[in-house]
Specification:
By secondary structure, chain A is α+β, with helices and mostly antiparallel strands. Chain B contains 15 helices and 11 strands. In chain B, a hairpin with an 8-residue loop joins strand 5 and strand 6. The chains are: A alpha+beta, B alpha/beta.
């Protein structure tokens, strides 16, 4: 470990988004691509990983709609209807995420068709980009 | 990652010999309590626990201090020190810890580990959160202001999620609230109406218990509220706009009631516990797992892992328990956790709730103090409040809410919005 040159992984993730790339970290031992990226592998515990672009293939395994307690008017205003979802990446990670393009009337139909394919969408927020997801169909 | 954690038996057995718990309350709303501060609340709970164990402050060798929101609510960052002078602990070693709403369960784990290691014989572990009456900077501790729901939801809740990616992904808190019950509904092919009826029934059951508990915050049974609102049937009231939805599944009666409170427990080696208590409660094991807020179904997966650990250690399952307590700041949590820990039969817990079987007078009692939505939620304190309830139930001292069959074994499933999950087993058989 080079103490004079620590790798800036969080900054690197956001810098890659500016380039249009959604990146994870591939374990140098087990090959698992973890998303989002961290220093060590959360699958096998190996301390070494390296940058790897994710495939973008993922599915929604569960979803819930915004309510009084949980909602982001700025997201709805900028990107239209959305839901909160569990998104499982082809690479293995399963994360809590925003899925765009889902209305309340879509919910029951989508739930009956789970898992539903989605793809990442890089979105501009206030001063940085982040990753939401959208239906791939 | 598949966990490789295998709990080892304690180096020596550890038992609870004293418990204390203040009322869970809105201190600002009562002239007799308006002005209470952290040192006093923690001190009264700690001194009650000592009295319960027949001890005095000089007997306590070390203490832990738990608080979920020390900086936001108390304007403190060394909260263990800020209470030390209030219960005779001047000069004694102490440690502060903070694991959000799981703090009160971690409090037990820390104390047990300290005694099991052999380092100390008498350890107190307490917690205090004033989640309704926050400190006012630059004013003495008795001058307090309302910690509003807006401050809590907008200021405190985001702080339990990591700023690397989780907060920016925006979905964690919504999925923590609804994710597991959503998955439960899908797995068991249950309609929204069936889930709603189960959660409303759980609220009615819990409120019936809290209305009989003098330490509880919510003291009016829903049957009375329904009648006063003109409803003949309590479930019609629970399904009405009097009980609005806050999220996809959770209505207002299924959401925590944040409030002020403190609680404490004292533990010692099991081999000397009878010197201090006629009825010590042994801590058989404590499983513990954590998943950060970015991961889907984190409460489910961490509960399964914590339960696996303690089941493997003790050889006991949820079926062996007589009482189950679960931190349920979203009330759905106590149903799904009870199934995950095999206390309720898989896929049928929702029916038990609707049939009243999980009430304090049912055959599979859960959250007999009313839980976070009805006993109240003094955040980091609540786990110790549950331990107080379990110990008193095992001693047969809970009065109107005492279980018909005094419980011999109890399981506590702690969960914090900071994503710690605890699964502890207590043994009341002597």
């Amino acid at each position: 470990m080079d103490k004079q040159n620590y790798e800036l992984i969080v900054k690197g993730f956001y810098d890659f988004l500016e380039e249009g790339k959604v990146m994870g970290r591939k374990c140098t031992r087990c090959g698992e691509v973890g998303f989002p990226p961290f220093i060590a592998c959360n699958e096998c515990g190996c301390p070494k990983t390296e940058w790897a672009e994710i495939s973008g293939e993922a599915t929604v395994t569960g979803l819930t709609m915004p309510g009084i307690m949980q909602n982001f008017p700025d997201v709805a205003e900028a990107f239209g209807p959305y839901c909160f979802a569990s998104v499982k990446l082809k690479e293995g990670s399963e994360i809590n995420a925003i899925v765009l393009g889902v209305t309340a009337s879509d919910r029951d139909g989508l739930r009956q068709r789970l898992p539903v394919p989605v793809k990442p969408r890089i979105v501009q927020r206030d001063g940085y980009k982040t990753v939401f997801w959208e239906l791939a169909e | 990652m598949a966990s490789k954690v295998k709990l080892k038996p304690y180096s020596r057995g550890v038992s609870i010999i004293g418990v204390g718990c203040t009322p869970f309350m809105f201190t600002l709303d009562n002239e007799k309590t308006n002005g209470l501060c952290e040192g006093e609340l923690f001190g009264y709970a700690a001194l009650e626990a000592m009295e319960d164990a027949g001890l005095e402050p000089s007997d306590v060798e070390f203490y832990y201090h738990g608080q979920a929101l020390p900086s936001l609510q108390s304007d403190y960052i060394t909260q263990n020190m800020q209470v030390a002078n209030w219960f005779g602990m001047k000069g004694k070693a102490s440690v502060a810890h903070s694991e959000a709403c799981c703090t009160g369960y971690v409090a037990l784990e820390q104390a047990v580990t300290a005694v099991a290691s052999g380092a100390y014989d008498i350890v107190l572990s307490g917690a205090c959160d004033m989640s309704d009456a926050r400190a006012v900077r630059d004013k003495p501790a008795h001058i307090r202001a309302r910690f509003t729901t807006e401050e809590f939801i907008g200021g405190a809740i985001p702080m339990v999620y990591s700023r690397d990616y989780t907060r920016g992904f925006l979905a964690s808190n919504a999925m923590v609230a609804d994710g597991w019950i959503m998955d439960y509904a899908r797995e068991n092919n249950l309609s929204d109406q069936q889930i709603d009826d189960a959660l409303n029934s759980m609220a009615v059951n819990c409120r019936r218990a809290s209305s009989l508990n003098p330490l509880a915050l919510m003291r009016t049974p829903f049957e009375q509220e329904a009648a006063e609102a003109g409803f003949d049937n309590v479930m019609d009231y629970m399904r009405s706009p009097y009980n609005p939805f806050l999220s996809q599944y959770l209505r207002v009666t299924g959401f925590e009631q944040k409030c002020d409170g403190a609680a404490a427990v004292i533990v010692c080696p099991t081999e000397i516990a009878h010197r201090y208590s006629d009825h010590p409660i042994e801590v058989l094991g404590i499983g513990h797992a954590c998943l950060e807020g970015i991961w889907s179904y984190l409460e489910r997966d961490a509960t399964l892992e914590a339960y696996r650990q303690v089941k493997e250690l003790t050889g006991l399952t949820g079926e062996d328990m007589d009482l189950f307590l679960a931190n349920d700041f979203f009330i759905a949590s106590h149903l799904v956790a009870a199934e995950a820990c095999e206390y309720l039969p898989k896929g049928h817990g929702w029916e038990y709730a609707i049939e009243g079987r999980t009430a304090f007078d049912g055959d599979k009692p859960i959250n007999t103090n009313g839980g976070r939505c009805h006993f109240g939620h003094a955040h980091g304190t609540s786990g110790l409040g549950d331990i107080y309830e379990a110990v008193k139930q095992m001693r047969g001292l809970m009065g109107p809410t005492q279980l018909a069959k005094t419980p011999k074994k109890a399981m506590l499933r702690g969960f914090g919005g900071g994503q710690n999950v605890i699964c502890a087993i207590l043994n009341g058989e002597n």
